[in-house]
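hey can u check if this looks right to u? its 66 residues, i copy pasted from the old doc so theres a chance i mangled smth
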Amino acid sequence: MQLTLGQNVRQAAVNEALGTAAQTLRDEGLYQAEVSAETVPHPETHQMDIVVHIKARPRARVGSSS
């Protein structure tokens, strides 16, 4: 996702990373996959966990289903 450890968290960077992940899934035929993220702050250490959720759907197939 190209988010660097120690980098300041910006919502724009998280959104861009999610877009990259979604595009990678589409490139692999997972056109209906849902990608989202939640942030978990740790104020005592000034750090943030970014938890990414991917809900994969069936892979697209070419041809007839017989």
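The chain has one helix and two strands.
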